[in-house]
Fold this sequence. Notes:
The complex is a heterodimer of chains A (279) and B (380). Chain A starts with 12 loop residues before the first strand and ends in a 9-residue tail after the last helix. Chain A has 279 residues and is of the alpha/beta class. A 6-stranded mixed beta sheet of chain A has the order 6-7-8-3-9-10, sandwiched between helices. In chain A, strands 2-1-4-5 form a 4-stranded antiparallel beta sheet, covered by helices on one side. Chain A has 10 helices and 10 strands. In chain A, helix 3 runs parallel beside helix 5, helix 6 runs parallel beside helix 7 and helix 9 packs across helix 10. The radius of gyration of chain A is 19 Å and the shape is globular. By secondary structure, chain B is an alpha/beta fold. Chain B has 2 domains: 6-100, Transcription Regulator spoIIAA (2-Layer Sandwich); 138-377, no CATH class. Chain B is built from 12 helices and 4 strands; from the N terminus they run ββαβαβαααααααααα. Chain B has helices at 29-40, 64-79, 91-100, 115-151, 160-170, 175-198, 206-244, 247-253, 258-297, 301-311, 314-340, 346-377; strands at residues 6-12, 15-24, 51-62, 83-87. In chain B, strand 2, helix 1 (29-40) and strand 3 form a beta-alpha-beta unit. In chain B, helix 1 (29-40) packs parallel to helix 2 (64-79), helix 6 (175-198) packs parallel to helix 9 and helix 7 (206-244) packs antiparallel against helix 12. Classes of the chains: A alpha/beta (279), B alpha/beta (380). The interface between A and B is large, with 39 and 32 residues.
Amino acid sequence: MTQSPPIGPEREVVIRVRDLKVGFGDRLVLDGLNLDLYRGEVLGFVGASGAGKSVLTRTILGLLHKRSGAIEVFGHDLDKLTFQERLRVGERWGVLFQEGALFSSLDVRQNIQAPMREHLRLSQTFMDGLAAQKLDLVGLPQDAANKFPSELSGGMTKRAALARAIALDPDIVFLDEPTSGLDPISAGDFDDLIGTLQRTLGLTVFMVTHDLDSLFAICDRVAVLGHGKIIAVGKIEELLRSDDPWLKAYFHGKRGVVRAGAREASRARLSPEAPSVRR
Amino acid sequence: MSVAPSVGREIGADGLVLSLSGDWTIAFGSKLEASASALAGPSGKPERPSRAVLDLSAVDRMDTAGAWLIDRGRALLEQAGMATAYRGARPEYALLIKEAGYKPDETPRPRHPPHTIALLSAIGESVYVSGQDFLDGVSFVGRTVAMGLRLLPRPARWRWTSMTYHLEKYSVRSVPIIALINFLVGAIVTQQGIFQLTRFGAGPFAVNMVGILGLRELGLLMTAIMVAGRTGSAITAEIGSMNMREEIDALRVMALDPLEVLIMPRLIALVIALPILTFLADMAELGGGLVVSWTYGGMTPVVYISRLHNAILPETFLVGLIKAPFMAAVIGSIASIEGMEVRGSAESLGQHTTASVVKSIFMVIVMDGLFAMFFAAVDY
């Protein structure tokens, strides 16, 4: 990494979650959760299935209502945004939904251009160029631009959705299981891509993932969700040394051990000097 | 805090030097584009140097959009025959330009044919498609009948739960709206009948009119149209979204026929529901007639009922009811066929749902006309 996140108390917090409570019916999914996301870092977010990872993501994005607590994004309290501020926030974050959530009646090019068209005034040539560039960045062939979402394979859908998420060069990108359903090579490329964007753009990435390779390869910090709270957060090395039984099972289980060996290899693969796989 | 992107040009010893400064980010939108077009500059100037240097040392911020524009500017200069180079870029921006730089777009866009040809082709296509629709309908009816015959001796394979569930949804839950609109139609027809017929001194014959017209035609027609809009659209949307989400493919690979699992229960439920609803509609229509004859015509309910008794025969009532199952089968089949044809996009779902309702209502009215001719011919 050429640009590691700044260390020390002056690190800028882009998302601050305090004492967040979210529940459905009489069940509290998130119970007093605290989380800070620093500018320029890649935060991996893990937890058992059903622990509430998606609930947290959707609550931060404003798609679910919270019972109590506060969420600040770029220093703005999400509850007190004016319409204009809400628009600005919408320009500054991009989301890759788990299923892609591409607009099914638009082709891929129009999908990528949708946020540009809605938020900015750009010429069509420029937008076409940017769409082509985003396709290239996410590793899609140019002829995918004219395809409709229903004609894409699973991996292509993920890439197209990422291209749309980064269309406005957002400050924060939310990725919900970006590498699930991708083959290992594509998943590695995806990690490379996110790493490149993070280094060059100073992108802040909030990544929900179960992909241990991604956690090792690109995450600066990893947060673990359990019992409605963050039970551990820190560098992956610290978490590996933890005595928490769930963490042990997660990182040192059957699948974890195999991956831990591959960790150095994936680090080497991602170093900026190494030639990129795609080019 | 943020400074708009700008370009400075000067011609030095080592050729053209373009000094870029400010924030080259997409947030500047059209300003960013304008600055970028200044990069290529007023082309065709006489003093065109052979070398150009893009000095990025004063660029405060750059994103992928900025990188693309800057690199496109460089590519344009190169096209104009200059050797180009970057200078003073921060390492992360150099990497950004390398990763997100400009690439000439060599993939051709799909070309659209001229309007006249597109119009002709659209007409041809719609003719072909309506032929195809007809064949699809025939094939669907054939498969449904075959499936019905196959299931007939095996009541254990009938989907009782699904059938009763849909029967409840299609019948019980539409009773209020069907009763209401038919009550109103009955009332309106009787009111107009009284007004018009009184001029000939035949006011009380409005009862005959609402009795015969309501039972033979209107009760069924209004109900069938309502059901096409309410239930037909629901069937198309349900089956269509199952189709979009690969649920129907999942059924197929389990060796289950969607026709048997999804369509038959709905079709049977609808065929049972529509006659029941038509009966209720008839009653509501006569009720509407009763209220209006009383209020506008001053006819007591006892007189109304006895006049009605003289005016209508059991056949009058049966004519309406006989048609109901056929209408139900047509509505259900069109809704199912359209549902199975939904592809991928949300737009397609909307299109087919609309088509389902429009075709159903059209077919209901056409069938009603055919029945009218048939009953006239057999003197029923």
